[in-house]
Amino acid sequence: MNSSATTIDNFTPPPKRTIDRVRQGLAKRKAAEKRFKAYGLIAIILGLSFLAILFTSIISKGYSAFQITYVKLEVFLDPAELDPSNTGDPEVLSGANYGGLVKSTLRSMFPDVTSRSDKRALYGLVSTGADYQLRRMVMNDPSLIGTTVTLWAPADDDIDTFMKGHIDRDASESDRRLKDNQITWVDQLVAEQLIEKRFNTTFFTAGDSRDPELAGIWGAAVGSFFTLLVTLALSFPIAVAAAVYLEEFAPRNRYTDIIEVNINNLAAVPSIVFGLLGLAVFINFFGLPRSAPLVGGLVLSLMTLPTIIIASRAALKSVPPSIREAALGVGASPMQTMLYHVLPLAMPGILTGTIIGMAQALGETAPLLMIGMVAFIVDIPTGVFDPSTVLPVQIYLWADSPERAFVEKTSAAIMVLLAFLITMNALAVILRKRFERRW
Q1: What is the per-residue pLDDT for 12?
Q2: DSSP per-residue string spanning 398-431
Q3: Tell me: the pLDDT tens digits for 184-193?
Q4: pTM above 0.90?
Q5: What is the tens place of the pLDDT at every residue in 106-149?
Q6: Could you please report the per-residue DSSP string of 11-70?
Q7: 3-class DSSP state for residue 317?
Q8: Degrees to nearest 5, angle at CA 426 with 260 and 431
Q9: Which contiguous run of DSSP H or E holds residue 73?
Q10: pLDDT tens digit string along 35-76?
Q11: Please, what's the b/e burial string for 376-409 (b: 16 or more CB within 10 A of its CB; e: otherwise)?
């Protein structure tokens, strides 16, 4: 009996086999994999949700900027006001009191307005752009003098904001920018169908302005075009040439290693550092004009060079060595091999990196602020030496303006800038998919 109990107590189970240990841990590994996939899915959903919230916020604030309110005026072009001596001199016509004609038209539309303060409020229904619009009309056709013309004048920004529902008419008069009598006049114009909202072509055809209803993005868009033109003309050939030399012809030694390390480091340098460099070198040392697309393009070229060089080198590396060996085997020189065989095959990747670098340059603001492109520019630039601004800086200026109408202008400009950026990135993807070869 004791011998049997001792035998049972001393019994040890056989060791587990390897397959049993694998099966035991398999369930844990599958559970961990499922959790990892769930975390990744949650991260993607959160990212898309935040992106959707951002786009929704921008669009909800900016879509109304694509419409603007106009007031219909029947203006009598009084010869006594425009050309008293009937000389027909363009200088006399250009300097005439067109604002007085607009004001007299408003007084005739609301004859009950007599006090000076009410008249001032009445004149505030229409933008000062009506004066310039009337002057252009007369300068283009002086035969209109002495007749009554129909003028759809842009409304003041407060009236435009009210028509778009951004001002509560039920709020107390002290809490809104419009007076009660102005709201009454607007209601009368609405009843008589003398006020309406139209597509805001001014937003796409005009330059910057102190008046929100007259401000547009065309000046900034042209400035961005000239700036990117200079950037592309400088950075693309230099970057491609540097990538070709480093990848195909440069000896592998300490100096080329230092160059490669510095190129990679420059790609991570904050963009404002390039702005400081441009301010010190291009403006203070070389004396180039401030706030010019030429200087902006030079600064952005320095910033985009590392991006294009790295992308170009990656594209050159992707070309199989057999292409080079076959070209060299039939008698081509190393330069001919590069120009006629390797470079054409790498060009889709090079173009993709270039477009991405240009899209990055299009959205930059900090380096351009350092070289003075934050200046208030009304005129449309006609060349790379003219003072100008760019779209990101224009957005920065409008975002800092106190008028409520500039809020929607800012969001609308952001929408336009995002459209350009998305288009450029989509073009890069299309080029890569269209011309990329699988080896």
Answers
A1: 61
A2: HHT---THHHHHHHHHHHHHHHHHHHHHHHHHHH
A3: 999 999 999 9
A4: no
A5: 999 999 988 999 999 999 999 988 999 999 999 999 888 889 99
A6: --PPPPPHHHHHHHHHHHHHHHHHHHHHHHHHHHHHHHHHHHHHHHHHHHHHGGGGEEEE
A7: helix
A8: 65
A9: strand 67-76
A10: 999 999 999 999 999 999 999 999 998 999 999 999 999 999
A11: ebeebbeebebbbbbbbbbbbbbeeeebebbbbb
Q: Estimate to the nearest angstrom the gap between the alpha carbon of 23 and the chain centroid.
A: 56
**What's the mean pLDDT in 216-226?**
93
Cβ neighbours of residue 412 closer than 8 Å, sequence gap 6 or more: 62, 63, 65, 66, 203
Amino acid identity of 35? Answer: R
For tokens 């003028």, the residue is: 151
Note the residue count of the chain: 439
Tokens representing 282 are 């291009």
The answer to whether 354 and 243 have CB atoms below 8 angstroms apart is no
Residue 191, φ and ψ in degrees, nearest 5: -65, -35
Instruction: Give yes or no for a contact between 216 and 208, defined as CB atoms under 8 angstroms apart.
Output: yes
CA dist 213 to 71, 152, 159, 203, Å? 13, 14, 10, 8
